[in-house]
Amino acid sequence: MAKLVRTEEEVMLADAARGFLDQAAPVVHLRGLRDAGQTQDRALWSEMAAMGWAGVLIPEEAGGSDMGHAAACALAGEMGKTLVTSPFLSTAVIAATALRQVSDARAVQALARIASGEVTYALAIDEGAKFAPEATQMQTRADGNGFRLNGEKRFVVDGANADRLLVLARTDAGLTLFDLPADRDGITREGQAMIDSRDAARIEFSDVAATGEDVLGQVDDAMSVLAPALRAGQAALAAEMAGLAAGAFGMTVEYLKERKQFGVPIGAFQALQHRAAHLWCECEVTASAILNAGRMLDEDPENAALAVSLAKARATDTAQRAVQEGVQMHGGIGMTDAFDMGFYMKRARVGAEWLGDYGYHANIVAQARGF
Amino acid sequence: MAEEDGALAAFRDELRSWLEANCPADMRDGRNDEASICWGGKNWNFASEAQRTWLQRCVSKGYTVPTWPVEYGGAGLSRDQEKVFHQEMRRLNARYPLQSFGIWMLGPALLHFGTHEQKLHYLPPIARGEIRWCQGYSEPGAGSDLANVQSRAEDKGDHWLVNGQKIWTSYADQADWIFALLRTDREAPKHKGISFILLDMTSPGVTTRPIKLISGASPFCETFFDNVEVPREQVVGEVNRGWDVAKYLLTHEREMISAAGGTMGSGRALGAVLADSGSTDTVLRADAMRAEVDGLAVALTLERYKDQAEAGQGAGDASAMLKYMGTELNKRNLELVMAAGGSDALIWEDGRAPNWLRTKANSIEGGTSEVMLSIISKRVLGLSG
Ligand SMILES: Cc1cc2nc3c(=O)[nH]c(=O)nc-3n(C[C@H](O)[C@H](O)[C@H](O)COP(=O)(O)OP(=O)(O)OC[C@H]3O[C@@H](n4cnc5c(N)ncnc54)[C@H](O)[C@@H]3O)c2cc1C
Ligand SMILES: Cc1cc2nc3c(=O)[nH]c(=O)nc-3n(C[C@H](O)[C@H](O)[C@H](O)COP(=O)(O)OP(=O)(O)OC[C@H]3O[C@@H](n4cnc5c(N)ncnc54)[C@H](O)[C@@H]3O)c2cc1C
């Protein structure tokens, strides 16, 4: 396997992303959207697409830059550092990976529209409060040559703004993944006010018509398309959360050097030094798991499940530690809305739940390791 | 690239068949506990004929120190080949043929700071398991504050005259030689008056007294130097610059201690340990799962840092992180092993308890966890005070 060191290209990509995001999307950008009652910035997404980010996992024939999962993780990590809100994970990572599993002309066209930034996607899986794709209950019934979908999806991240929806539903002999325009008759979307100020919707499907054309992959066999897409999404989300942890940690260390009490910077107190040092160690260890997940997805995707779940479990844990220590070490100011740390804390909680929480992924790791 | 892969694959094939043909059946149990380790040295009694054979065969190939240059007794393996070496050893569940402070600590320091003559003189006997070394760093008044060592070496022209006391010297009573930190300038600031000196333990004036550990074993000692004469040329690096050598050696010691985390004790994965115990305790299982997640990520970090070092992106203080995370994890793992073992594990003869107790030293020896955190907060995070 390739080395657990970033390649020169990955370093350049991350540096370029950092430069762009510091200008275009520092944390105050998210704050501005929230204060304006918005959850997404389509103009920002167009700029990202113009830089090739929307096509990071899309073949060159379809207009993508095809840089691979490690590169996608590098981008997600930079976005995490300043809490950038965009349809990157839902669209450029999850939907693009799902569409890549299908090699027909329609899928290629759909990929091209993702790469150009023209179309965005959301993944509609969850029906309960926890991620459990295999337990999907959403009903379909046969209707002529097609289907009718009925039911409700929750926590559809990016769902209120997306142009298209990937919907997981139960068919005769298994699960099927549908690729539907979000404005199809019978679909009702309701954006939910989420703690992380981002887009997540509750979506109702009331006798929504779907044909064979709308099925992604094969009927009754969603997982051969969806499983790789979920792994890609989980890895990139883990990378985002590791970036978030690094962002929160960086702010905290700066504060330890600035804030004076008892006549000295609070970073002079060993009680805080050792906790900060411990947190740095946690961040470093998690960074290894992220790098490894990206490499495995690029080089041995069939066997990447353990690496991806390890990355998501570690990143979930580390991000939560980083924001809790972040607030605590800031004292009173850490509790205020005017200060950014709270945004990190709230995003970390949402990221912990999305696409499987710590326990979900730790169980996958444990099973793969003979528990 | 493809060509290189081909060469690596050929190396793997050759190594695999060599290991299959040469590793004795009794050496294929992956054990790494005190009773199974081969330490070598003049006083060594092989635990079995298989242990002797395995060592001799590995020595002939340079496999006791696979990455050392061939002229010093190694096999001259590259980093990629080294990875393959460890993978193939693990595949066969082979024991390490030889372990020693010479391999882990002194060797890397000599390779970096030693003269060509010193390397030729001291390294091959380490590789062959003929000379066993011990580490004379700590003193009663110099533990975490290691630079406070007071044992001294006086310049007597053609030799050094050494006096003083070391403590916690692991295996001093069984070792042939000791590498010691000794004060050679009492006027200079404490870091600037120390030299790194090599001593023959059979020299007149060297005595040792074993200290018993909580595990019941007594692998470490007090070591006394009473007017010991040491030839002048047995200084490594510059006189009064021994602290540089000492610190460099410590980074290797720390990496070794953290790497040992994965193989300590039975060397078995936690999942298997739990399965064997037949435990249905869901709380224990959850704790073990967390430890497994953390353990895998720490192991990857060890790999990542080695890859970075090879790519010339060495993180100097990385060893403090690995040492801290690795040893704390190791302690956690052995707590889980004990819990899974229930009352069976409480009987001395069972063998788990000594390992469990031994791991408690991991976060003390080679620099304590607190010292590691202080190093990180100062050097990596730039926090002062
Ligand atoms: C919700 C809320 C309600 C409050 N209500 C009131 C109120 O009604 N009246 C009122 O007077 N105040 C109130 N406070 C203020 C509160 O008492 C202070 O926030 C608290 O004393 C900490 O002070 P600080 O915010 O300046 O943090 P700092 O003192 O700057 O501390 C920052 C960090 O450094 C750590 N630290 C500081 N010194 C040391 C040291 N020597 N050793 C180790 N660590 C150290 C702290 O533990 C903290 O983690 C309130 C605060 C909050 C969040
Ligand atoms: C099994 C074993 C084998 C060993 N083998 C060897 C050997 O072969 N050769 C050798 O030279 N030495 C050896 N040692 C010694 C080891 O290196 C020392 O024990 C270690 O460096 C700690 O020193 P100390 O025991 O004097 O503890 P102290 O330095 O007295 O520390 C006591 C406690 O105080 C804490 N502490 C100290 N300073 C600070 C600080 N500034 N901030 C916060 N906390 C602090 C420590 O972390 C520790 O928890 C061995 C030790 C053990 C347990």
Give the tally of structural domains of chain A.
Answer: 3
- CATH architecture label name of the largest domain in chain B: Up-down Bundle
> What is the CATH homologous superfamily assignment of the largest domain in chain B?
Butyryl-CoA Dehydrogenase, subunit A, domain 3
Straight-line N-to-C gap of chain B: 49 Å
Strand content of chain B: 5-15%
Parts with pLDDT < 50 across at least 5 consecutive residues of chain A: none
Proper CATH architecture of the largest domain in chain A: Up-down Bundle
How many individual helices of chain B? 11
Gross morphology of chain B: globular
Structural domain count of chain B:
3
Average pLDDT of chain B: 92
Helix content of chain A: 40-55%
Q: What is the assigned CATH homologous superfamily of the largest domain in chain A?
A: Butyryl-CoA Dehydrogenase, subunit A, domain 3
What CATH first level of the largest domain in chain B would be assigned?
Answer: Mainly Alpha
- Spatial strand sequence of the major β-sheet of chain A: 2-3-7-6
Largest sheet of chain A: 4 strands, antiparallel
Care to count the β-strands of chain B? 8
The N- to C-terminal Cα distance of chain A equals 26 Å
Tell the overall outline of chain A: globular
Q: Rg of chain A from C-alpha positions?
A: 21 Å
